[in-house]
Design brief:
The protein is of the alpha+beta class and about 725 residues long. Helices cover about 15% and strands about 30% of the residues. The strands form 9 sheets. The protein has an 8-stranded mixed sheet, sandwiched between helices. Strands 3, 4, 5, 6 and 7 form a 5-stranded antiparallel sheet that branches. A 4-stranded antiparallel sheet has the order 8-9-10-11, with no helix packed on it.
Length: about 725
């Protein structure tokens, strides 16, 4: 993907909802005005009318006004009129920026290169990977008998819609590789339909499963069907804002209607419980993972599939840690877990003796992020050290470290998947100056070799990445990756983007991005801060940035900005901040807390109303990171930093372009609509407050390539104007 991909075990479906929170939204094209727009000193007259209502809520005795509550209903006629007017204004403003087309040309040129995912072995003689020729709307799935073969197209999502907005959500093969279950997302929605394909013929079968969200498909060993999780059909199928509660786990038998699916597990007394599943490699046990919200904790149940009328059996029910089954030898299971180990470790248990643990690989100073078991009893463990990857090989039986995988530099390694019989595996490596490269790893020798290199490269020595450590407000050291052209002068004049996220235990690790490369070619600095609230340093780092500690995240980001200025990278008028979803909240909160510190802000699909986030779709699940406004103590915290509620009239806010999708069913667009309306009304300075609303996109997942290019082009064009960027001679020619 063009931003980057983070992976988490499919067994934690609700936690997975936040692994894509970094994607941004983009707006539809309209015919721009030919008039050159200049924002007046009192710019509110430039903006579409946003009448303030008289809604006032009582929170624990505090009266809180919500004047733009009417903007929450994105299908209401007045809101549709408002959306159209806002898009017309934004497109007209962007349309008069001369550098816009040169940016689009260069963005398109650099995006247009062949991209392959690492091959994955399904079974003997069946390998799959994804491929994009450069400008395809969606990547295509290929299948072959060998990873070195050319292969054939198995599934082409580009045939599913004319505009490229129907995307492949996920894919899961039966154990013998003869059947493929795959999910499809329409227009960026989190809702999925699951279909089944005959792999040999490529024909889609009659099976269609509806109302699936935050779920994969777990095949039975015999290929007769698969387990999946779904919600009940909503009362109004078009109500994309309704709460998602009471998820249930089902078994679907191939060739039967969904109405005949067997209910495996539900909890009518627990509306917030979500369910994921896996099957042990020997096919005997169905493992059921029970999570609540986004917190990295889960309960674990299992079902013996060889037992007649086998019941679901509780195994780990305390909800005190994260548990993930990585292998089994009959009833002896091996887990990755952070139980009594904030950085995680590998443990073992005989399920006939619940609670009797044996340590296999102890907790390390670095954070354990993934584990796989391959041939000859080899454990491959991927760690994070100061937000970049370190990969080790250990003995599966006794945990002894055998070797470290030699990575090509400081970056991110992902992959290493496979079965316990596999003697080879594949992984991808990327960095801020390293386009994603696929490596083949020989399990027996421990050696890596380049398997496939991208058809594009960063000119050697032209760009450099450095990792600096800044001091936050309370003295905490926070790592920041800074990438730019070599030989940068620290004279305070460099246009700079500071990107951040800081939440939900998600780690920002080095990745190659075409959009960031274009920015750096324009002379810009690209900085990524690893804020508290993320997962870069384990559970304690996450806890230090959530609930009552959330202000630490904003302080880390503000301190990162101050350091970039003090060190001479940039200056306030040349500094932009950017982030999406929880990162949009970050940008919104920092904009209203320190408007003097930034020249521009790009909050995308942000959580902006911290008093109503839990009223829509999956928002209630974020209470594990944010807390609940219904709690009197947490209300004070949330109200204290909620971007929407802390916009103040008479303040000169930085130039801002909010981005969202009008039917985002992850972070509903009402957040962005209300924030933009409040900012437009309050703005005392001459800098613009714009909102760019994509009318055929959701939270960002599955967005077609052209939308990504258009979105990135408009963001950079906006920054060129607002930060007064001088473009290099001949750029985009």
């Amino acid at each position: 993907t063009e931003i980057y991909t983070l992976s988490l075990h499919d067994a934690l479906p609700i936690s997975m909802t936040h692994l894509l929170l970094l994607a941004l939204a983009c707006a539809p094209k309209t015919t721009p005005s030919t008039e050159v727009l200049a924002m007046p000193a009192a710019p509110t007259s430039m903006y579409p009318a946003s009448p303030a209502g008289e809604v006032v809520d009582d929170y624990h005795g505090t009266q809180v006004a919500d004047p733009y509550r009417w903007l929450e209903d994105s299908d209401a006629a007045p809101v549709r009129t408002w959306i159209e007017a806002q898009n017309t204004l934004t497109n007209a403003y962007l349309g008069q920026i001369p550098e816009r087309e040169a940016i689009r040309t260069r963005m398109t040129d650099l995006w247009n290169y062949e991209r392959y995912s690492a091959p994955s072995r399904v079974t003997e003689g069946v390998y799959v990977w994804s491929y994009n020729d450069g400008l395809m709307s969606q990547s295509v799935m290929y299948i072959a008998e060998s990873p070195s073969d050319a292969g054939r197209v198995l599934l082409d999502p580009n045939t599913l819609s004319e505009d490229g907005t129907v995307a492949l959500g996920g894919s899961w093969f039966s154990d013998d590789g003869t059947k493929l279950a795959y999910s499809v997302s329409d227009g960026g929605s989190d809702w999925r339909k699951i279909y089944v394909m005959d792999v040999a013929t490529g024909e889609t079968e009659a099976d269609v499963l509806d109302w699936v969200k935050f779920s994969g498909a777990t095949w039975k060993k015999d290929g007769s069907g698969f387990f999946y999780a779904r919600y009940d059909a909503p009362a109004d199928p078009n109500d994309f804002e309704a709460k998602n509660e009471f998820q249930k786990l089902y078994f679907h038998k191939l060739g039967t209607p969904q109405s005949d699916d067997t209910l495996i597990y539900e909890r009518q007394d627990q509306p917030t419980w979500g369910f994921g599943s896996s099957i042990t490699e020997d096919g005997r046990y169905l493992v059921i993972y029970n999570s609540e919200g986004t917190e990295r904790k889960n309960r674990l149940f299992y079902k013996d599939l060889q037992a007649k009328n086998g019941q679901v059996t509780p195994l780990l029910t305390e909800f005190d840690a994260q548990y993930y089954v990585i292998a089994n030898d009959g009833p002896v299971w091996t887990f990755e877990t952070d139980k009594d180990a904030p950085n995680s470790r590998v443990m073992r248990m005989d399920i006939r003796k619940p609670g009797e643990w044996t340590e296999v690989v102890p907790e390390q100073e670095n954070v354990l992020r993934s584990v796989s078991v391959l041939a000859n009893n080899k454990l491959v463990l991927t760690y994070l050290k100061d937000a970049h990857s370190v990969v080790q090989v250990h003995d599966f039986k006794n945990g002894e470290m055998l070797s470290e995988v030699a990575l090509p530099g400081i970056g991110s390694a992902s992959g290493f998947g496979g079965r316990r019989t596999d003697t080879e595996t594949f992984y991808s490596f990327t960095g801020y100056t390293v386009p994603g490269t696929t490596y083949r790893f020989d399990v027996n020798s421990g050696e890596s070799e380049v398997f496939r290199e991208p058809a594009i490269a960063m000119p050697e020595g032209e760009f450099v990445t450095e990792q600096i450590f800044i001091t936050s407000k309370d003295g905490t050291k926070v790592p920041v990756f800074v990438t730019h052209k070599a030989g940068l002068e620290m004279d305070g004049t460099n246009p700079t983007i500071l990107y951040g996220y800081g939440g939900f235990n998600i780690s920002l690790t080095p990745y190659y991005s075409t959009t960031a490369r274009v920015w750096m070619e324009m002379g810009g600095v690209y900085a990524v801060a690893n804020l508290r609230g993320g997962g870069e340093y384990g559970k304690e780092w996450h806890d230090a940035g959530r609930l009552a500690n959330k202000q630490n995240v904003f302080d880390d980001f503000i301190s990162s900005a101050e350091h970039l200025i003090e060190a001479g990278y940039t200056s306030p008028e040349k500094l932009a901040i950017m982030g999406g979803s929880n990162g949009g909240l970050l940008v919104g909160a920092c904009s209203v807390q320190r408007p003097d510190l930034f020249g521009a802000a790009l909050p995308a699909v942000g959580v902006m109303d911290m008093l109503r986030f839990n009223q829509f779709t999956i928002g209630w699940a974020w209470e594990s990171d944010y807390g609940s406004p219904q709690d009197p103590d947490m209300f004070k915290v949330l109200y204290g930093y909620s971007p929407y509620h802390n916009v103040k009239e008479g303040v000169e806010y930085p130039s801002t372009m909010v981005t969202t999708g009008d039917h985002d069913d992850r972070v509903v667009p009402g957040h962005s609509f209300k924030y933009a309306a409040a900012m437009q009304q309050a703005q005392a300075g001459a800098d613009p407050i714009l909102i760019r609303i994509e009318t055929r996109g959701g939270h960002g997942a599955g967005k077609p390539t052209q939308m990504r290019i258009d979105e990135a082009t408009d963001k950079w064009a906006f920054l060129v104007k607002e930060l007064d960027v001088s473009m290099p001679e001949g750029f985009g020619e």
